[in-house]
Design goal:
By secondary structure, the chain is α+β, with helices and mostly antiparallel strands. The protein is built from two helices and nine strands, in the order βααββββββββ. It has helices spanning 8-13, 16-29; strands spanning 3-4, 38-47, 53-61, 67-68, 72-77, 83-89, 95-96, 100-108, 121-124. A four-stranded mixed sheet has the order 1-8-3-2, with helices on one face. A three-stranded antiparallel sheet has the order 6-5-9, with no helix packed on it. The longest helix is centred in the first third of the chain and has 14 residues, at 16-29. The protein is globular. The two termini are 28 Å apart.
Length: 126
Amino acid sequence: MHSLVFQEKWASTLSEKDRKEIEGIYSQSVPHLHKGMIVFTSIWQAKNHREDLLISVLIQNTTKEAFVLEHTAVSYLAEDGTSLAQHIFTTNQILVEPNTSMPWTFIFPGAGDVLERGVGRLVLVD
């Protein structure tokens, strides 16, 4: 059984509208998940006042182990596979248990201009 969890900070700050949107994305994505993978399912994309790229996703863990962001390279790819932004993330705030989805926002410093090139997707870099 796969479940949706919200980090405490997310749970306390999300509007009811945003929570329902995330729950809808989760419900639509779960039937298409394959076992043994970490999948990033897009929620929102934006840039902040510092021109950072903000990518909110559901981190969907279908592996047998917890997923932790510790020196984890993540790339934001254009539809054609071209890397638009890449960053190494380390945080002690992310722990996605097996068979769990959790929303999270990845911040790519100074990369907000890539949104002008269209919508992309996040992938783990090997």
